[in-house]
Amino acid sequence: MFGKIITGMFLASALVSNLFGGDRLTGAGASFPAPLYYDWAYTYKKKTGNRVNYQSIGSGGGIKQISKRMVDFGASDKPLKSAELEKKGLLQFPAVIGSIVVVFNVDGIADAQLKLKNSVVADIFAGKITKWNDSRIKADNPTLNLPNTPITVVHRSDGSGTTYNFSYYLSGSSEDWKSSVGTGKSLDWPVGLGGKGNEGVTNLVKQTPNSIGYVEQAYKSRNSMTAAVLQTASGKWVEAKEENFKAAAAYAKWTIEDNFYQMLALQPGDTSYPIVASTFILLPKEKANTNKMVTAFYDYSFGRRGDRSADKLGYIALPEATKNMIRNYWKKHGVNP
Questions:
Q1: Tell me, what CATH number does 109's domain have?
Q2: SS3 category, 94
Q3: pLDDT tens for residues 39-89?
Q4: 11 burial class (0-12, 13-18, 19+ CB within 10 angstroms)?
Q5: Looking at the domain assignment, is residue 272 inside a domain?
Q6: Which of 18, 25, 174, 181 is 20 to 30 Å from 165 at the Cα level?
Q7: Are residues 120 and 162 in the same domain?
Q8: Residue 18: what pLDDT?
Q9: What's the CA gap between 231 and 239, in Å, rounded?
């Protein structure tokens, strides 16, 4: 609902832009950061008169559209390695950090009450644990009234960076998952229902009793969903909350030389939430003038107001040192605003 409201507000402002001028940019891709990008675009339009139209179509769609030069910028939660960026003629930089939470819909069990080992999450999504009162779930939740009902798994149906990061976490948590399903934007899911975008998974979990799925934290917060307590890489129980997301994000080691390639899941530390991820912007190298308009938008959004929006919506703003590194990257490639 939040995304729809913001989108409606943004489309209305876009009509004003068409009437009175201003730069007009189109981006497409990850649904993971979409609520924040809508908010940033709305504020940027009010401040500058320039329109940024973002389409939440999934990371796979974003990579495809920017590779074909159908949009001015693409967005992906799956970072591309330097060799692939070179092949596609693209630049890449992070925009914000978020977290993926395991949400569920079980009557009588509240947020942060259900504990799920990382290996148990993998076996649920693999279809090896099929009922909520399975002995492996009960062992870590002796006081919960777990129903003797089938678990309905909900996953993404589209090519998704959220899926890439979630399956990266599952591969790091279970050798069986790693060898049988693996890591990717699109998977051959063993079981479950598919929803398009974070929005689709959110709606399916909310509408389906005894279901479980994975969404970006902003969707969980805005839709008042319940999330499981997971484990750090060292096996400590850790809730899905801001300080634990930030603890994991602190381990990010960005470099300009690697085009900011970095996976943030399963970082060390006793309070590091296990499924943290950055989302990235992709630019075509040859379109310097358009790229400067895109980087002007993100440079503005990296300011205090943009950071406050990120915090309000459940994301983690990039550290100032990282933002300055990104500005140096833009300058190196001649796309600084």
A1: 3.40.190.10
A2: strand
A3: 999 999 999 999 999 999 999 999 999 999 999 999 999 999 999 999 999
A4: exposed
A5: no
A6: 25
A7: yes
A8: 37
A9: 8
- Together in a domain, 127 and 195: yes
Provide the number of structural domains found in the chain: 2
Read off the tokens for 173. 């948590």
Tell me the three-class secondary structure of 13-71, residue by residue: HHHHHHHHCCCEEEEEECCCCHHHHHHHHHHHHHHHCCEEEEEECCHHHHHHHHHCCCC
Angle, CA 55 vertex, CA 50 and CA 58 arms, to 5°: 145
Q: State yes or no: pLDDT of 319 exceeds 90.
A: yes
186 plus 322 within the same structural domain: no
In the block, tokens 């890439």 appear at 164
Instruction: Please check whether residues 205 and 296 belong to one and the same domain.
Output: no
Domain assignment present for 270:
no
Helices (H), 141-196: 161-173, 175-180
List, for residues 179-234, the tens digit of each pLDDT value: 999 999 999 999 999 999 999 999 999 999 999 999 999 999 999 999 999 999 99
DSSP-assigned beta bridge partners for residue 53: 26
Helix (H) / strand (E) containing 297 = helix 288-301
d(CA 69, CA 58) in angstroms, rounded, equals: 16
Which pairing describes strands 73-76 and 193-195: parallel, antiparallel, or unpaired?
Answer: unpaired
Please check whether residue 317 lies inside any domain of the structure: yes
Please give the biggest Cα pair distance in the chain. Answer: 64
- Closest to 319 in 3D by CA, of 250, 268, 258, 244: 250
Residues 197 and 105 in one domain: yes
Q: Is 281 helix (H, G, I), strand (E, B) or coil?
A: strand
DSSP string, 154-165: EEESS--HHHHH
Lookup: tokens for 90: 């693209």
**Phi, psi of 135, rounded to the nearest 5 degrees:** -60, -30
Report the C-alpha gap between 238 and 105 in whole angstroms.
20
Residues in the chain: 337
- pTM score: 0.89
Cα(182)–Cα(187) distance, integer angstroms: 8
Question: 25 lies in which domain range?
Answer: 2-98+251-262+278-332
Is residue 123 one of the residues assigned to a domain? yes
